[in-house]
Give the backbone structure.
Amino acid sequence: MNIQWANGVSGMDNPAVNDVLKIIQRNDIISFAGGLPSARSFPIKELAAAFHSTLLEEGAAALQYGVANGYEPLRSWVAERLQKQGIDCKPGNIIITNGSQQVLDLACRLLVNPGDAIAVENPTYLAAIQVFKGAQANILPVPVDAYGMNIDELAKVLQREKPKFIYVNPTFQNPTGVTMTVERRQQLAQLAAKYQVPVVEDNPYGELRYDGTPVPPIKSFPGGEWVLYAGTISKIVAPGLRIGWMAAGEEFIAKMASAKQISDVLTNSLTQRALYRYLCNHDIDNHIGTIVAQYKEQRDSMLEAMKAFFPAEVTWTIPDGGMFIWATLPENIDTTKLLPEAIKEKVAFVPGAPFYSDDTGQSHNTMRLNFSNSTPDMIYEGMERLGRLLKAHVR
Ligand code: PMP
């Protein structure tokens, strides 16, 4: 069939990543490639009880249409939680979305015309790149170092161009695991206000902290009214629920609700209510504590195994939280070419290239390693296999 696709469609696909995701579903492979939370942490019985009682006790409302902004008690729960993290907000500043992924898509619908610019960390979350390319945006890469997005470089970009927004994943970033410093957060909020450019602060991993002290969200600093804050239940309860949220000024929330209305009318009413019940009946912080203890052990196992099995020429980030470690290999190793060899050895990772939005070629020798979905034993075994392969390639 000769289908005439719309202009943005070619940017939505990432065949390399689709291939990796297919391969890692083979259960003979130890995969550090996905970004899946551990299924061991899902509160299955508790959610079953919450769904059951929601249907029995408020079935008619739970099965009915509702407002696009989301279930009010859940919005209040989110607002209260964000207030504790220093974000000044009320339920009217919250919209419930189908995961935080939908925030990125709807933000593009509201702000981006084809050819408009969006500034991003380089590297960044690859599904964000896909959304932005789908919106036919011109992506402006800003380098990331051990302290997060380089704000001096961002300032240079803002002097030259006016992006429609700045996208950042400042805490335990996907893919690098790095966290933006307090000073840079402050500077970023100031720059947003000075240049009147919104920031989309995407924070799915912030509550998964294993070391150090929490860093306040960018939205909590002066200038924070320019920040659209995206959060999610995916990494602290379960991603299959598809519940996320955005916190923003009321004007933006109203436009977002219109965009959501035309996109999917509203987020699943039954799930919103059942999740709210679950949150009321259980101590979520205690549950997060269990996840944190598990992932910390897995992160430590991965770091230990890297030290033991990787050649000395390889360097890597040491994330204080989240789900990812980012490794940089010697220049002569191209991780995209290395992957098929790794799969033969029954271990997988994601090559770094798709996380970069430019083609400068700096990305070929990096890889993302996920530790949330493998036990310590699997991590040691997989890292030993990968280490052996790397040693064979180091010159
Ligand atoms: N942003 C980032 C940085 C992510 O890593 C993810 C999930 N992998 C998402 C957004 C989307 O999460 P969800 O839609 O499940 O909330």
